[in-house]
Amino acid sequence: MRVGVLTGGGDCPGLNAVIRAVTKSLIRQGDCEVIGIEDGFEGLMGATPRVMPLDWERVSGILHAGGTILGTSNSANPLANEATVAQVKANVQALGLEVVVSIGGDGTQSLAHALAQAVGMQCVGVPKTIDNDIANCERSFGFDTAVATASEALRRIESTASSHHRVMIVETMGRHAGWLALEAGIAGAADVILVPEIDYDLQAIIDVCKAREQRQRYTIICIGEGAKESGHSQTVRQTIAGSTDPVRLGGVAHVLRERLQPHLKSEVRATVLGHVQRGGEPTPFDRVLATQFGHHAAQLVLSGQFGRMVTLQHGRITSVPIASVANSQRRIDLHHPLMVMARDIGICLGEA
Ligand code: F6P
Protein backbone atom coordinates (compact mmCIF):
# COMPACT_ATOMS: atom_id res chain seq x y z
CA MET A 1 0.00 0.00 0.00
CA ARG A 2 1.19 3.56 -0.72
CA VAL A 3 0.42 5.89 2.15
CA GLY A 4 0.87 9.68 2.20
CA VAL A 5 1.71 11.55 5.40
CA LEU A 6 1.30 15.30 5.86
CA THR A 7 1.46 17.84 8.67
CA GLY A 8 -0.97 20.78 8.40
CA GLY A 9 -1.72 23.94 10.38
CA GLY A 10 0.63 25.51 12.93
CA ASP A 11 3.54 23.29 13.91
CA CYS A 12 3.93 21.91 17.41
CA PRO A 13 6.45 19.82 19.35
CA GLY A 14 5.95 16.10 18.71
CA LEU A 15 5.09 16.16 14.99
CA ASN A 16 8.31 14.38 14.07
CA ALA A 17 7.65 11.74 16.71
CA VAL A 18 4.32 10.96 15.00
CA ILE A 19 5.90 10.90 11.54
CA ARG A 20 8.55 8.49 12.83
CA ALA A 21 6.10 6.15 14.58
CA VAL A 22 3.51 5.98 11.78
CA THR A 23 6.22 5.41 9.16
CA LYS A 24 8.06 2.72 11.11
CA SER A 25 4.84 0.86 11.92
CA LEU A 26 3.59 1.01 8.32
CA ILE A 27 6.92 -0.25 6.98
CA ARG A 28 7.48 -2.91 9.62
CA GLN A 29 3.95 -4.20 10.04
CA GLY A 30 2.48 -3.61 6.57
CA ASP A 31 5.46 -3.40 4.21
CA CYS A 32 3.94 -0.12 2.99
CA GLU A 33 5.58 2.56 0.90
CA VAL A 34 5.32 5.85 2.78
CA ILE A 35 5.40 9.20 0.98
CA GLY A 36 5.83 12.47 2.92
CA ILE A 37 3.81 15.38 1.47
CA GLU A 38 5.59 18.71 1.93
CA ASP A 39 4.02 21.79 3.56
CA GLY A 40 0.64 20.25 4.31
CA PHE A 41 -1.99 20.27 1.57
CA GLU A 42 0.10 22.84 -0.31
CA GLY A 43 2.35 19.98 -1.44
CA LEU A 44 -0.57 18.47 -3.38
CA MET A 45 -1.89 21.67 -4.90
CA GLY A 46 0.76 22.52 -7.51
CA ALA A 47 1.19 21.15 -11.04
CA THR A 48 4.01 18.98 -9.66
CA PRO A 49 3.41 17.45 -6.22
CA ARG A 50 6.08 18.17 -3.62
CA VAL A 51 6.86 14.95 -1.80
CA MET A 52 9.71 13.08 -0.11
CA PRO A 53 10.01 9.33 0.36
CA LEU A 54 9.86 8.37 4.03
CA ASP A 55 11.96 5.31 4.63
CA TRP A 56 13.41 3.86 7.82
CA GLU A 57 16.61 5.93 7.64
CA ARG A 58 14.80 9.22 6.90
CA VAL A 59 12.66 8.96 10.04
CA SER A 60 15.40 7.69 12.34
CA GLY A 61 16.86 10.14 14.84
CA ILE A 62 13.97 12.66 14.63
CA LEU A 63 12.06 11.69 17.79
CA HIS A 64 13.33 14.66 19.81
CA ALA A 65 13.37 17.27 17.06
CA GLY A 66 10.92 20.18 17.25
CA GLY A 67 8.95 21.34 14.20
CA THR A 68 8.23 18.98 11.31
CA ILE A 69 10.62 17.52 8.74
CA LEU A 70 7.76 17.70 6.21
CA GLY A 71 7.12 21.42 6.63
CA THR A 72 3.61 22.74 7.18
CA SER A 73 1.24 25.47 6.11
CA ASN A 74 -1.78 26.99 7.79
CA SER A 75 -3.05 28.99 4.85
CA ALA A 76 -3.37 26.38 2.07
CA ASN A 77 -6.93 25.57 1.04
CA PRO A 78 -7.08 22.54 -1.30
CA LEU A 79 -10.83 23.09 -1.68
CA ALA A 80 -10.46 26.74 -2.76
CA ASN A 81 -11.94 26.14 -6.22
CA GLU A 82 -12.71 23.37 -8.72
CA ALA A 83 -9.36 23.68 -10.49
CA THR A 84 -7.45 23.17 -7.23
CA VAL A 85 -9.55 20.15 -6.29
CA ALA A 86 -8.92 18.68 -9.76
CA GLN A 87 -5.17 19.29 -9.39
CA VAL A 88 -5.08 17.62 -5.96
CA LYS A 89 -7.03 14.66 -7.37
CA ALA A 90 -4.61 14.31 -10.28
CA ASN A 91 -1.63 14.44 -7.90
CA VAL A 92 -3.12 11.86 -5.53
CA GLN A 93 -3.73 9.53 -8.49
CA ALA A 94 -0.29 10.13 -10.02
CA LEU A 95 1.36 9.36 -6.68
CA GLY A 96 -0.81 6.26 -6.29
CA LEU A 97 -1.82 7.26 -2.76
CA GLU A 98 -4.51 5.03 -1.32
CA VAL A 99 -4.58 6.72 2.08
CA VAL A 100 -3.35 10.02 3.51
CA VAL A 101 -2.51 10.34 7.20
CA SER A 102 -3.16 13.99 8.09
CA ILE A 103 -1.53 15.22 11.27
CA GLY A 104 -3.13 18.50 12.27
CA GLY A 105 -5.65 20.50 14.27
CA ASP A 106 -9.39 20.86 13.74
CA GLY A 107 -8.86 22.89 10.54
CA THR A 108 -6.62 20.23 8.99
CA GLN A 109 -9.00 17.44 10.03
CA SER A 110 -11.97 19.28 8.49
CA LEU A 111 -10.04 19.80 5.25
CA ALA A 112 -8.81 16.21 5.12
CA HIS A 113 -12.32 14.90 5.64
CA ALA A 114 -13.88 17.12 2.95
CA LEU A 115 -10.98 16.57 0.55
CA ALA A 116 -11.10 12.79 0.93
CA GLN A 117 -14.71 12.87 -0.18
CA ALA A 118 -14.01 15.32 -3.03
CA VAL A 119 -11.06 13.44 -4.56
CA GLY A 120 -11.97 9.89 -3.61
CA MET A 121 -9.06 9.01 -1.32
CA GLN A 122 -9.09 7.58 2.17
CA CYS A 123 -7.80 9.46 5.19
CA VAL A 124 -6.81 8.88 8.79
CA GLY A 125 -6.34 11.82 11.17
CA VAL A 126 -3.91 12.48 14.02
CA PRO A 127 -4.76 15.43 16.30
CA LYS A 128 -2.05 17.97 17.14
CA THR A 129 -2.12 21.37 18.77
CA ILE A 130 -0.57 23.24 21.64
CA ASP A 131 -4.08 24.66 22.25
CA ASN A 132 -5.50 21.28 23.38
CA ASP A 133 -8.82 22.35 21.86
CA ILE A 134 -9.68 19.43 19.55
CA ALA A 135 -13.14 17.99 20.14
CA ASN A 136 -13.29 14.43 21.50
CA CYS A 137 -9.59 14.48 22.42
CA GLU A 138 -8.65 15.03 26.04
CA ARG A 139 -4.94 15.65 25.36
CA SER A 140 -3.19 16.47 22.11
CA PHE A 141 0.59 16.18 21.90
CA GLY A 142 2.43 19.51 21.95
CA PHE A 143 0.27 20.82 24.77
CA ASP A 144 2.44 19.42 27.57
CA THR A 145 5.53 21.02 26.02
CA ALA A 146 3.79 24.38 25.62
CA VAL A 147 2.59 24.27 29.24
CA ALA A 148 6.16 23.52 30.36
CA THR A 149 7.55 26.44 28.33
CA ALA A 150 4.89 28.92 29.46
CA SER A 151 5.07 27.94 33.12
CA GLU A 152 8.87 28.21 33.05
CA ALA A 153 8.42 31.75 31.64
CA LEU A 154 5.99 32.58 34.45
CA ARG A 155 8.48 31.38 37.04
CA ARG A 156 11.18 33.60 35.53
CA ILE A 157 8.80 36.56 35.39
CA GLU A 158 8.01 36.09 39.07
CA SER A 159 11.54 36.80 40.27
CA THR A 160 11.77 40.07 38.38
CA ALA A 161 8.18 41.00 39.38
CA SER A 162 8.98 40.55 43.06
CA SER A 163 12.26 42.48 42.78
CA HIS A 164 10.56 45.49 41.17
CA HIS A 165 7.21 45.18 42.99
CA ARG A 166 5.39 45.13 39.68
CA VAL A 167 2.24 43.66 38.21
CA MET A 168 3.37 41.40 35.37
CA ILE A 169 0.96 40.18 32.69
CA VAL A 170 2.01 37.12 30.69
CA GLU A 171 0.04 36.23 27.54
CA THR A 172 -0.14 32.64 26.29
CA MET A 173 -1.42 31.30 22.97
CA GLY A 174 -4.45 29.00 22.80
CA ARG A 175 -6.89 30.68 20.39
CA HIS A 176 -10.46 30.52 21.70
CA ALA A 177 -9.71 27.98 24.43
CA GLY A 178 -8.01 28.69 27.74
CA TRP A 179 -6.37 25.31 28.43
CA LEU A 180 -2.83 26.58 27.94
CA ALA A 181 -3.33 29.70 30.08
CA LEU A 182 -5.09 27.64 32.77
CA GLU A 183 -2.50 24.87 33.12
CA ALA A 184 0.52 27.14 32.64
CA GLY A 185 -0.99 29.61 35.12
CA ILE A 186 -1.53 26.92 37.74
CA ALA A 187 1.93 25.41 37.19
CA GLY A 188 3.52 28.87 37.13
CA ALA A 189 1.83 30.09 40.34
CA ALA A 190 -0.15 32.90 38.69
CA ASP A 191 -2.37 34.95 41.02
CA VAL A 192 -4.86 35.74 38.26
CA ILE A 193 -5.68 33.46 35.30
CA LEU A 194 -7.83 34.85 32.50
CA VAL A 195 -9.29 32.50 29.88
CA PRO A 196 -11.46 33.12 26.80
CA GLU A 197 -14.30 31.15 28.35
CA ILE A 198 -14.88 33.90 30.99
CA ASP A 199 -15.23 37.57 30.03
CA TYR A 200 -13.16 39.17 32.76
CA ASP A 201 -14.30 41.84 35.15
CA LEU A 202 -11.62 44.55 35.34
CA GLN A 203 -12.55 45.53 38.90
CA ALA A 204 -12.00 41.97 40.16
CA ILE A 205 -8.43 42.10 38.82
CA ILE A 206 -7.81 45.58 40.24
CA ASP A 207 -8.97 44.33 43.67
CA VAL A 208 -6.49 41.43 43.61
CA CYS A 209 -3.59 43.67 42.53
CA LYS A 210 -4.41 46.31 45.17
CA ALA A 211 -4.62 43.74 47.94
CA ARG A 212 -1.28 42.28 46.87
CA GLU A 213 0.28 45.78 46.69
CA GLN A 214 -0.21 45.89 50.47
CA ARG A 215 1.26 42.45 51.22
CA GLN A 216 3.32 40.56 48.63
CA ARG A 217 3.94 43.72 46.56
CA TYR A 218 3.80 41.95 43.19
CA THR A 219 1.17 40.16 41.11
CA ILE A 220 1.41 37.66 38.26
CA ILE A 221 -1.41 37.57 35.73
CA CYS A 222 -1.56 34.81 33.09
CA ILE A 223 -3.93 35.60 30.23
CA GLY A 224 -4.90 33.50 27.20
CA GLU A 225 -4.74 35.38 23.90
CA GLY A 226 -8.47 34.85 23.29
CA ALA A 227 -9.58 36.36 26.62
CA LYS A 228 -11.47 39.65 26.67
CA GLU A 229 -12.90 42.11 29.14
CA SER A 230 -16.63 41.98 29.69
CA GLY A 231 -18.31 44.24 27.13
CA HIS A 232 -15.18 44.42 24.92
CA SER A 233 -14.01 42.40 21.92
CA GLN A 234 -11.12 39.99 21.42
CA THR A 235 -7.74 41.46 20.43
CA VAL A 236 -6.98 40.51 16.83
CA ARG A 237 -3.32 40.69 15.79
CA GLN A 238 -3.77 39.96 12.08
CA THR A 239 -6.37 38.81 9.55
CA ILE A 240 -5.03 36.61 6.75
CA ALA A 241 -7.16 36.87 3.62
CA GLY A 242 -7.90 33.57 1.88
CA SER A 243 -6.79 31.46 4.86
CA THR A 244 -9.07 28.73 6.18
CA ASP A 245 -8.28 30.15 9.66
CA PRO A 246 -8.01 33.89 8.90
CA VAL A 247 -8.04 35.44 12.38
CA ARG A 248 -4.82 35.55 14.42
CA LEU A 249 -5.29 36.67 18.01
CA GLY A 250 -2.62 38.34 20.14
CA GLY A 251 -1.80 41.45 22.13
CA VAL A 252 -4.50 41.30 24.80
CA ALA A 253 -1.78 41.54 27.50
CA HIS A 254 -1.01 45.07 26.28
CA VAL A 255 -4.70 45.97 26.20
CA LEU A 256 -5.10 44.80 29.80
CA ARG A 257 -1.96 46.69 30.84
CA GLU A 258 -3.42 49.96 29.50
CA ARG A 259 -6.69 49.34 31.34
CA LEU A 260 -5.06 48.35 34.66
CA GLN A 261 -2.25 50.88 35.01
CA PRO A 262 -4.37 53.96 35.84
CA HIS A 263 -5.85 52.13 38.85
CA LEU A 264 -2.60 50.91 40.44
CA LYS A 265 0.41 52.37 42.23
CA SER A 266 2.69 49.55 40.97
CA GLU A 267 4.06 49.58 37.45
CA VAL A 268 2.29 47.13 35.13
CA ARG A 269 4.28 45.32 32.42
CA ALA A 270 3.14 42.94 29.68
CA THR A 271 4.95 40.00 28.03
CA VAL A 272 3.56 38.15 25.02
CA LEU A 273 5.18 34.69 24.89
CA GLY A 274 4.23 34.03 21.25
CA HIS A 275 5.81 31.32 19.13
CA VAL A 276 8.41 30.33 21.71
CA GLN A 277 5.56 28.17 23.07
CA ARG A 278 5.42 26.18 19.83
CA GLY A 279 9.11 25.66 19.30
CA GLY A 280 11.76 23.31 20.60
CA GLU A 281 11.95 19.70 21.68
CA PRO A 282 8.84 17.88 22.90
CA THR A 283 8.74 16.84 26.56
CA PRO A 284 9.05 13.10 27.30
CA PHE A 285 5.25 13.01 27.85
CA ASP A 286 4.64 14.46 24.38
CA ARG A 287 7.21 12.12 22.80
CA VAL A 288 5.38 9.11 24.25
CA LEU A 289 1.88 10.41 23.36
CA ALA A 290 2.94 11.36 19.82
CA THR A 291 4.53 7.94 19.32
CA GLN A 292 1.35 6.23 20.54
CA PHE A 293 -0.76 8.39 18.20
CA GLY A 294 1.48 7.61 15.20
CA HIS A 295 1.46 3.90 15.97
CA HIS A 296 -2.34 3.88 16.34
CA ALA A 297 -2.78 5.77 13.05
CA ALA A 298 -0.82 3.00 11.33
CA GLN A 299 -3.09 0.37 12.90
CA LEU A 300 -6.14 2.21 11.52
CA VAL A 301 -4.57 2.29 8.05
CA LEU A 302 -3.56 -1.37 8.14
CA SER A 303 -6.97 -2.51 9.36
CA GLY A 304 -8.80 -0.37 6.79
CA GLN A 305 -10.51 1.86 9.37
CA PHE A 306 -10.60 5.04 7.32
CA GLY A 307 -12.27 8.39 7.99
CA ARG A 308 -11.22 8.13 11.63
CA MET A 309 -8.99 10.27 13.86
CA VAL A 310 -6.76 8.86 16.57
CA THR A 311 -7.58 10.27 19.97
CA LEU A 312 -7.09 9.99 23.74
CA GLN A 313 -10.23 9.33 25.75
CA HIS A 314 -10.35 8.34 29.41
CA GLY A 315 -6.59 7.89 29.29
CA ARG A 316 -6.75 5.34 26.44
CA ILE A 317 -5.67 5.66 22.82
CA THR A 318 -8.66 5.06 20.55
CA SER A 319 -10.27 6.66 17.50
CA VAL A 320 -13.38 8.64 16.55
CA PRO A 321 -14.95 9.54 13.18
CA ILE A 322 -13.13 12.59 11.73
CA ALA A 323 -16.57 14.05 11.00
CA SER A 324 -17.16 14.28 14.77
CA VAL A 325 -14.18 16.61 15.31
CA ALA A 326 -14.32 18.70 12.13
CA ASN A 327 -15.22 22.34 12.71
CA SER A 328 -15.69 22.07 16.46
CA GLN A 329 -13.50 23.11 19.37
CA ARG A 330 -13.16 21.83 22.92
CA ARG A 331 -13.34 24.71 25.38
CA ILE A 332 -13.11 24.78 29.18
CA ASP A 333 -16.27 23.98 31.10
CA LEU A 334 -16.60 26.56 33.89
CA HIS A 335 -17.13 23.69 36.34
CA HIS A 336 -14.07 21.75 35.14
CA PRO A 337 -12.17 20.35 38.17
CA LEU A 338 -9.17 22.60 37.42
CA MET A 339 -11.40 25.69 37.44
CA VAL A 340 -13.05 24.62 40.70
CA MET A 341 -9.66 23.94 42.26
CA ALA A 342 -8.24 27.27 41.06
CA ARG A 343 -11.13 29.18 42.67
CA ASP A 344 -10.85 27.13 45.88
CA ILE A 345 -7.16 27.91 46.34
CA GLY A 346 -7.73 31.63 45.76
CA ILE A 347 -6.65 32.10 42.14
CA CYS A 348 -8.71 34.91 40.60
CA LEU A 349 -10.35 33.86 37.32
CA GLY A 350 -11.53 37.38 36.55
CA GLU A 351 -15.08 36.64 37.67
CA ALA A 352 -17.18 39.52 39.01
O1 F6P B 1 -3.25 26.86 16.96
C1 F6P B 1 -1.93 27.01 17.37
C2 F6P B 1 -1.56 28.47 17.49
O2 F6P B 1 -0.24 28.56 17.99
C3 F6P B 1 -2.52 29.30 18.33
O3 F6P B 1 -2.32 29.14 19.71
C4 F6P B 1 -2.22 30.68 17.82
O4 F6P B 1 -3.32 31.53 17.99
C5 F6P B 1 -1.95 30.45 16.36
O5 F6P B 1 -1.58 29.10 16.21
C6 F6P B 1 -0.87 31.34 15.79
O6 F6P B 1 -0.79 31.13 14.43
P1 F6P B 1 0.40 31.71 13.53
O7 F6P B 1 1.59 30.82 13.71
O8 F6P B 1 -0.13 31.66 12.16
O9 F6P B 1 0.69 33.10 14.01
Automatic annotation (TrEMBL):
EC class = transferase
- What's a single GO CC term here? 6-phosphofructokinase complex
What is an annotated GO biological process for this record, any one?
fructose 1,6-bisphosphate metabolic process
- Tell me which stretches of the chain form a coiled coil: none
Keywords in alphabetical order: ATP-binding, Cytoplasm, Glycolysis, Kinase, Magnesium, Metal-binding, Nucleotide-binding, Transferase
- Binding sites annotated in the UniProt record for ATP: 10, 105-108
Please write the reaction equations for the catalytic activity of this protein: beta-D-fructose 6-phosphate + ATP = beta-D-fructose 1,6-bisphosphate + ADP + H(+)
> What pathway annotation does it carry?
Carbohydrate degradation; glycolysis; D-glyceraldehyde 3-phosphate and glycerone phosphate from D-glucose: step 3/4
Q: Where is the active site?
A: 131 (proton acceptor)
Q: Where is this site: Important for substrate specificity?
A: 107
Q: What does this protein do?
A: Catalyzes the phosphorylation of D-fructose 6-phosphate to fructose 1,6-bisphosphate by ATP, the first committing step of glycolysis.
Q: What is this protein called?
A: ATP-dependent 6-phosphofructokinase
Q: Which organism is it from?
A: Stenotrophomonas ginsengisoli
Q: Which gene encodes it?
A: pfkA
